[in-house]
Amino acid sequence: MTAQPTDIAAYNFAYLDEQTKRMIRRAILKGIAIPGYQVPFASREMPMPYGWGTGGVQVTASIIGPDDVLKVIDQGADDTTNAVSIRAFFKKVANVAVTTETAKATIIQTRHRIPEHPLSVGQVLVYQVPIPEPLRFLEPRETETRKMHALEEYGLMHVKLYEDIARHGRIATTYAYPVKVEGRYVMDPSPTPKFDNPKMHRSPALQLFGAGREKRIYALPPFTEVVSLDFEDHPFEVQTFDQPCALCAAENVYLDEVILDDHGGHMFVCSDTDHCEKRREEGHRGHLAPETPLALEKTEPAQ
Amino acid sequence: MEIATQSIEGGFADPVFNAQAVFRAVMDAMAQPGSVRPLPAFARPPAPLSATSGAVALALCDNDTPLWLDPALQISAAVKSWLGFHTGAPLANTPADAHFALIAAPAEMMALDGFSQGTQDYPDRSTTLILQVNNLTSGTPLLLEGPGIEKSATIAPAQMPRHFVEQWKQNNQRFPRGVDIVLAAAGSIACLPRTTRIKTMEA
């Protein structure tokens, strides 16, 4: 083997066998050629349960090479169970370099967030998708939803959004907010907060979506038009927060609410841990940040 | 050399990592149409199959993907047995049955609409064409627009199919149905997915 500092057998590089990788690679190419269309693929069993990102893992395993640098996030965080275990999985089966820094990664596998740091040309963002079909909760039959996509018949989705307005006075969908890709396919952006939808629009990075249990792969090439569905009199809006991050004072980022005690104490902190740590290293401090700037615990990539 | 020897030699020296490298080049080229990706000669297929298109075939084809060869390749028993030995891909009876088509002489190839276009329900069931072109710089320049291209891109593949701009416009109009093209030049590739539009160049 060429310059592989590993004793892992190459036939097993990145866990999947070569025929499976070819099958997934062909599906990825079709997905890129038809943005927003869900390409069926023969999803394999992975050594983790459905719902833990088997679709994303299979996509990452099929594209990753020895020169790649992998970052894995779960709800924006590099240090949660799902992110740590998937990162450890690829370190073990592909012996690739891993990082927590958005800018240094060539492949970022994500569960339900897009990093705050702008992505660049050449990066690949791999989403873990639970339900790829945006119409599934409106029409349970696959035969019907397939026909609706074929005929570009998306009236039902607008009815759903309209019913939100009728009931709540506004569009109440806050995550997995449906988007239209290049004026053709309606696509589920995976359960990212709608806060992240604008980042998909004309993103310089290639975005790949893998749904393991539902056996679908879809893609957005760089610089693709991605428009969140809305109405003229009820335009699409992202979530806003009335306070900055309690640790790094960042504004205009997505915040998580953290419960501090059982007396109603709570704080809002950046969902993107890498972004938050970078800002604190730069000296930004929120109102709940420690008095003395502590040496930040670096989230070391798991072994 | 004997056909038997020719068909066995010339595959990937390092199947796993060569296939990954070729795929990443194709993926990046497909994601950014018009961008030219370098591709070292990982494979050494018998002529008239080129090293680049041979490598793409090895990276993507197997017994699940019927292959169609254009007449220039079809007449070469060495090419057929090389592809058969290294990929195991069956030969398609008609272009419309093919998942991949290898074209050694694009200037003489049949019309794009003769290949599988996919269906409205399953537009992914279309043929991907691998065109062997001399280079990507000396032909008629094509100004490209569409997903994957920030503003516009230009590529000038030599020896493209006849009436290509007109044929490609029709391919665009069939969206989401349609064929995708991998342009395999010596040492580099570029792609034209069905979403890419060719703007007519001002003279």
Automatic annotation (TrEMBL), chain A:
Catalytic activity annotation: alpha-D-ribose 1-methylphosphonate 5-phosphate + AH2 + S-adenosyl-L-methionine = alpha-D-ribose 1,2-cyclic phosphate 5-phosphate + methane + 5'-deoxyadenosine + L-methionine + A + H(+)
Keyword list, A-Z: 4Fe-4S, Iron, Iron-sulfur, Lyase, Metal-binding, S-adenosyl-L-methionine
Biological processes annotated in GO: organic phosphonate catabolic process
Segments for region (Disordered): 281-303
One Pfam family named in its UniProt record: PhnJ
A Gene Ontology molecular function term of the record: alpha-D-ribose 1-methylphosphonate 5-phosphate C-P-lyase activity
InterPro entries according to UniProt: PhnJ (IPR010306)
Keyword Iron-sulfur tagged: yes
Function: Catalyzes the breakage of the C-P bond in alpha-D-ribose 1-methylphosphonate 5-phosphate (PRPn) forming alpha-D-ribose.
Protein name from the UniProt record: Alpha-D-ribose 1-methylphosphonate 5-phosphate C-P lyase
Taxonomy of the source species: Bacteria, Pseudomonadati, Pseudomonadota, Alphaproteobacteria, Hyphomicrobiales
TrEMBL record, chain B:
Keywords, comma-separated and alphabetical: Lyase
GO molecular function, one term: lyase activity
GO biological processes: organic phosphonate metabolic process
InterPro entries named in the record: PhnH-like_sp (IPR038058), Phosphonate_metab_PhnH (IPR008772)
Record protein name field: Carbon-phosphorus lyase complex subunit
